[in-house]
Amino acid sequence: MEMNGGYAAFFSRAGIPVVHMSYLDDVMRKLSSVAFPVKHTQYDTFQRLQDHFDPELKVHARVAQVAGELVRDLSDSLFLPFNLLDYAQLLRDLYFSLHIHMGSLGHGLDLSILDSAVQNFSAAAFAFHLRQSNLDTSDPMAIRRVNDQLLLLERAFLDPVGLPQNPYKKHIVLSPAESPAYVDEMFPGITDEFMRFLDQLGAPEDLRPHAATLHKHYHLLVQTLVQAADSLAEVVPPQATPSH
Prior knowledge:
The chain is an all-alpha fold. The chain has helices at residues 8-12, 26-30, 46-53, 58-76, 84-103, 111-133, 140-156, 188-200, 208-230. The protein has 2 domains: 18-76, no CATH class; 84-230, Transferrin receptor-like, dimerisation domain (Transcription Elongation Factor S-II, Chain A, Up-down Bundle), CATH 1.20.930. This is Putative neurotransmitter catabolic process.
C-alpha cells in the first residue's frame, strides 16, 4: 500500500483501516513509478484521463465493481476479516530489522523489552482468534464485541503526541517515516531518529539530544504495543441486574 497516498491520514492520524485499489497492466507494471505522471498536478484532469489513460472508463468501471464486491463481502461477513496474526508478523519483522541495525550502534536500548512486547502481542492475537473461533454466533452482542475490538485495534497504536519529527502522524507502526530511509523498514519514529543519528555521526554536533529523543520514543513504542495487546483481552460483559 502507498503509505504516502491521499488517504494516509485516515490510518496515520485517525487509526481508521483503509484499503488501496489500483489497476496495473503489463506496461504499467514496468513503469510503475511513472504510471500516472500528471497525478496531483494541474494537468490531472478528467479530459486528459479520457484522452490518454482510460478513454471508455472501462478500467474505472472494473475497479468500481471490485470495490462494490468488497463492500458487499464485508457487509455480509459475520466477523471483520482481519487476521491479527498478520499484524503480529509485521511487528516481528519490524523488530527483527531494528535488532539488526541497532545491534552495531552504541544506542543503549534494551531491545529485550520490545521483543517481549512483540511476543506478548502475538500471544494475545492467537488467543483472540481462538476465542473468536469458539464464540457463540447466536449471541449478537458477543459478535459485536469481537468486531469492535478488531475495528478499534488500529487506534490502540496511536500516540497523541505523534512521531518525534511529525506530530500530525500518530500511528507509531504504519505511519510513513519522515526521512527517506536507506535501511530496511523499521518502526517509523525509530527510523527517523536512527537516520538523524547516522547523519550526525562524525559531526561536531552534540548527539545527546538525538539519543534522548530516540530513547524516549522507544519506550513509548514498547508501552503502546503492550496496550495494543491488552486491547485484545477478553471483554466480559457486565452481569444483568436481576429484576425484583
